[in-house]
Write a structure and sequence with these properties.
The structure is a homodimer.
Chain A lengths: L6 E7 L12 E7 L8 E9 L4 H5 L19 E8 L9 E4 L6 E4 L4 E4 L16 H14 L6 E5 L4 H12 L3 E6 L2 H10 L4 E4 L5 H8 L4 E6 L3 H8 L2 E9 L13 E3 L2 H6 L3 E4 L9 H13 L7 E5 L7 H6 L6 E5 L5
Parallel strand pairs in A: 8-9, 8-11, 9-10, 11-12, 12-14, 15-16
Antiparallel strand pairs in A: 1-2, 3-4, 3-6, 3-16, 4-5, 5-7
Helix pairs in contact in A: 2-3, 2-8
Amino acid sequence: MAKLPQTNAQVLLKSRPQGIPQAEHFEIVQTPMPVLESGQFLVRNEFLSVEPAMRGWVNAAANYSDPVPVGGVMRSFAAGVVVASRHHGYSEGDRVMGMLGWQAYAVSDGSTIRRKVLEDDLPLSLSLGVLGINGVTAYFALTEVGEPRPGDTVVVSTAAGSVGSAAGQIARLAGCRTVAITGGPEKMRMCLEDFGYDAAVDYKSAGFVDALVQACPRGVDVYYDNTSGAISDAVVRHINKGARIVICGTASVSNWEPWPAGPRVERHLLNKAARMQGFLVWDYEHRYEEAVSKLAGWVRNGSLQYREEILEGMAAAPDAIAGLYRGENFGKRVIRLQPQD
Amino acid sequence: MAKLPQTNAQVLLKSRPQGIPQAEHFEIVQTPMPVLESGQFLVRNEFLSVEPAMRGWVNAAANYSDPVPVGGVMRSFAAGVVVASRHHGYSEGDRVMGMLGWQAYAVSDGSTIRRKVLEDDLPLSLSLGVLGINGVTAYFALTEVGEPRPGDTVVVSTAAGSVGSAAGQIARLAGCRTVAITGGPEKMRMCLEDFGYDAAVDYKSAGFVDALVQACPRGVDVYYDNTSGAISDAVVRHINKGARIVICGTASVSNWEPWPAGPRVERHLLNKAARMQGFLVWDYEHRYEEAVSKLAGWVRNGSLQYREEILEGMAAAPDAIAGLYRGENFGKRVIRLQPQD
């Protein structure tokens, strides 16, 4: 067993934000290194995840999980290596990914572990991105809810994001025409060159709707929606008979309490015999390895591209979620812990 | 072959309505009795159907069928008996149901016939109601889109209507708790006593939402929606995880052009991993007999109740659609043609 430091660096939720959590809502503290009890093991985190959903985890409104308590370690996925174990199922050197929190060391009894990371030939950080919740979400949401068929037109919003870029590429691998909705010239370029979309449209441009219609000459069969709001309203108007709208995220709407108003979709869904369906990746937890296996195969043979943005050191954590909402990131955002963290 | 009259009574669309078609938009005319060509047969209609969807059939906006032309026979389902045939597949005496129009006699080459009515032990009018599009719609929309499971709570709007009452009863037969949304004391009574709902709530009462919540102590698993609008908004707020919202009609919203505003459902569908899906019975045309066979069995053994409202004579036709929208009917509205029609 490696020699452990005396203290553990942790990012705590200092106060509860209204809306997007900012740097000021967090504080980094040093706490005593935990002592393992029987049935526990200690993980040295190498990468901490940063994702939009974490905004919901710190807000008071009941969402699909209880909010992080003020004063508690910020909830997050993280990936690391087991450095000490009193658990028969985990050994020193095991690579694991799970809900380990924004901290350097995490004690687990196994219940917070999502999986052992077995892809030793691939970077550990991928278990937080394209081989993690992002990729697994894209895989099941697209294939199980979107049900793409060869020749379908599949439109993806936040198409350059870590979920969207995977969804678009999986749709292309399924034989679909893929259309990206993204913002700004650099993300347009990424969508077309890095992620292989057949077309890309810029929601920030004045001619967005015309460009969208032009990019979908045969209408829209699957809409993989990460945004909601005006972007989605435009796509929904152009769905085909029998279309599937996958609600995977609502990034463009900042507040859902009270529910904002928008155009009613009922008549349109009826006339098109179309469906709109929400997707929660937790419902597919029992099939996680099935998705990772597919995704890892595509990563290895080069047919699934990904992009990571690696922030260095725990000091980057407090502002990292706010940065996502400022749209400053390109690719899956992770924090790589440093020896001194 | 029975002796045929010289003329055929027909209801023509006289002018195109904006909104709900009124009596003044139709006229009854006598036209020469058609002469059969080879491959054709003549149906003497006994019952003409009256249904809310006919409003859409006469309006100019492209819906899911072309509008009835001004001066054309009003499109409708009808049921009758073959009285002359030059078609090898149809013989005198065959009972048929199809898109035969609001007229006493209809020529067909078979393409307008939906089915031969083989349930000789049951009234022919049922082929326009509980054993017709209404029943078949309720059957497939509930079972294929709603996917009811034993113990589920199923809420039905326009629960006393010809589609809703069938949907509610089929849900009860599937082992569900069924909750009716309807308007006024007589329809409340029908829902509880005639159609066997476990609970009924009156959307016209001030305490509607509270009553709805009380009637669904375990939340809502399936919402069979015939109304849209404020009624549906109340139900949607109380759906359970994994709920299915079947969009079968939008009777409470009078105008969809432009799309009216309502509360955005995306976040809620996401949080609940729920779906909202439109249903068009035409998509199940190839499985029509499967549904009729089930429904007829339930009618025969008394487990599926229905209610008809029979208007006498073609003179009742012009005002019959408007009457539906005035809410004056109880049960599936049909027009029984008289000998002089």
